[in-house]
UniProtKB/TrEMBL annotation:
This is Aminotransferase. The lineage of its organism: Bacteria, Bacillati, Bacillota, Bacilli, Lactobacillales. It comes from the Bacteria. PANTHER family: AMINOTRANSFERASE, ASPARTATE AMINOTRANSFERASE. One of its GO terms (biological process) is amino acid metabolic process. It comes from Limosilactobacillus oris DSM 4864. One of its GO terms (molecular function) is transaminase activity.
């Protein structure tokens, strides 16, 4: 028996640049890893303590498939308090991370031939998840000269009778763009008029730079929006694998049916930690957000001093999407040379779509001292 028994899609899979970089990062020592979007902070101690206490007390069994009722209510309370959005607990499904939330939503939504519009640059698993769910991804290329902003008019050009949904991500990974309220309203109007769902990945919603505002698109199209989010970034809980989706109750019910066939429920102790985090959101998130703002401020100040780099203002997220076109190198070749010459690992922009070519994503997920070391090394390079 050999690999010919595999699904044809996985006998000769397309290159996955992002996955390859992540795998490389896990194996390498003595490099400055500015590739993976994993905050270097340990999960706040009160979250760990809350989960540990429940484990010691014997809370080591399944929860309800939809998640802990208290956690679902806490998520509703959060959106009510912060954004004045009213959701009922039956509109919330707890998942094994935000990626899982997106996949079960897509699997519940799509039939073969259904189309999902995805603006690029984007987190590459979006495209694969649409395919795995039986749908067809339809790409909208972002424009570097516009800061890769999500443009409702360009998206409208791609809508066909087969279109069911649009996947957006704001604040955006990798570009750092944050949709304005006006841009969100325009996209919401399109979704309502065309009877489409917007699957809104809001995992970086806490990470907005001073002077910027994150506006949930659900404010303008609550019946057409599915919020995808989780605790990985805001609470430095990447290893806990805990996320959620919020949307119309009929979709949440169907997504939970999919989930029953995949994981049944999210890890109980991760849900306990998430509950504590949501109940103490502002006090726990603020120091992490502040640290990332300081790091991004530093990178935006220092990187433009390198004559072969250009950096657009970062509006949000935890990344800088740096323009390396002056080097004359493609993003994959540049990232390879940067690793060999300076021991710095970044993600080629091509990993986020063809329109990301000529850029690299620099993650501010290392301490400021490591970022300063990386910048110093880059300043010594010529191409």
């Amino acid at each position: 028996m050999d690999s010919s028994i595999l699904s044809k899609a996985y006998q000769q899979p397309a290159a996955n640049i992002l996955a390859d970089v992540c795998a490389l990062a896990a194996k390498m020592d003595n490099v400055i890893d500015l590739s993976v979007g994993d905050p270097n902070f340990t999960t706040p101690a009160p979250i760990i303590d809350a989960a540990f206490a429940k484990a010691k007390a014997g809370m080591t069994h399944y929860t309800a498939a939809e998640g802990l009722p208290e956690l679902r209510q806490a998520i509703c309370d959060f959106y009510q308090d912060k954004y004045q959005l009213h959701f009922a607990p039956q509109q919330v499904l707890i998942t094994v991370g935000a990626e899982h939330a997106l996949f079960v939503a897509l699997a519940a939504l799509l039939d073969p031939g259904d189309e999902v519009i995805i603006p690029e640059p984007c987190f590459s698993p979006y495209i694969e998840q649409v395919k795995l769910a039986g749908g067809t991804p339809v790409i909208v290329d972002g424009k570097p000269e516009e800061g890769f902003k999500i443009n409702a008019q360009e998206i409208a050009k791609k809508v066909t009778p087969q279109t069911k949904a649009i996947i957006i991500n704001t604040p955006n990974n990798p570009s750092g763009n944050v949709m304005t309220a006006e841009e969100a309203q325009a996209l919401a109007k399109l979704a309502v008029e065309k009877d489409l769902l917007i699957l809104s990945d809001e995992i970086y919603s806490d990470y907005v730079m001073p002077g910027q505002t994150f506006t949930p698109i659900a404010k303008f199209a609550p019946d057409n929006t599915v919020i995808i989010s989780g605790m990985s970034k805001s609470f430095a809980m990447t290893g806990w694998r805990i996320g959620y989706l919020v949307g119309p109750d009929w979709l949440v019910t169907a997504a939970n049916d999919v989930n029953d066939a995949v994981t049944f429920s999210a890890p109980t102790l991760s849900q306990v930690g998430a509950l504590y985090g949501m109940q103490h959101h502002d006090e726990l998130v603020a120091p992490i957000v502040q640290a990332f703002q300081e790091r991004l401020d530093y990178l935006q100040k220092e990187l433009p001093q390198i004559d072969w780099l250009s950096v657009s203002p970062v509006q949000g997220s935890i990344y800088v999407f740096a323009d390396i076109r002056k080097t004359g190198l493609g993003s994959v070749e540049f990232a390879d040379q940067l690793l060999k010459k300076a021991g710095i690992l970044v993600v080629p922009g091509l990993a986020f779509g063809k329109c990301g070519e000529g850029f690299v994503r620099i993650a501010a997920t290392q301490p400021l001292a490591a970022l300063k070391e990386a910048v110093a090394k880059m300043k010594q390079l010529t191409w």
